[in-house]
Amino acid sequence: MPVKAPSQTVRQCIKKEDPVPKIEEADKNCKFISKQIKGDTVSWKAECRDKEGVTTIIGRVTYKGNTFDGVEEFRENGELIMKAKISGKWIGPCK
Predict the structure, then answer these.
(1) Which residues touch 14 (CB under 8 Å, ≥6 apart)?
(2) What is the CATH number of the domain that holds 63?
(3) Could you list the residue range(s) of the whole structural domain that residue 43 is in?
(4) How many CA atoms lie within 13 A of 63 on its CB side?
(5) Residues 6+ apart with CB under 8 A from 37
(6) For residue 22, what are the contacts with CB-CB under 8 A and spacing of at least 6?
(7) Residue 42 domain-assigned?
(8) What angle do CA 61, 16, 28 make, to 5 degrees?
(9) Does residue 12 surpass a pLDDT of 70?
């Protein structure tokens, strides 16, 4: 049965040269497997490794002006463990 997790707010500097929202898995060794940009949509796949195994993150966001909306799926051993809706808005230039 799905469980609704509380929403979280994270501030990030997302630049045109690197439009993928950052993976906030500081305790894991994460690397991008692929990134693709088609029009205003950015897709990616990443793997994060820790002592318990590999988590695969598959994400997609679509930018619309100063906002974006998308989804991330987290999988362990190929099994979906979490699906998250993500959204963002421009709040000013990066510092």
Answers:
(1) 20, 21, 22, 88
(2) 3.10.450.630
(3) 29-89
(4) 17
(5) 19, 43
(6) 12, 14
(7) yes
(8) 60
(9) yes
- 23 pLDDT exceeds 80? no
Give residue 35's identity as a one-letter amino acid code. Answer: K
Residues 41-88 pLDDT 10s: 999 999 988 888 899 999 999 999 999 999 999 999 889 999 999 999
Structure tokens at 25: 């898995």
User: Which pair of tokens denotes residue 80?
Assistant: 């979906």
Counted residue by residue, the chain has a size of 95
| Cα distance between residue 95 and residue 4, in whole Å | 33
The CB-based long-range contact list for 81-88 (8 Å cut-off, 24+ gap) reads 81/55, 82/5, 84/5, 86/21, 86/59, 86/61, 88/12, 88/14, 88/21, 88/61
> Tokens 């990616």 identify what position?
44
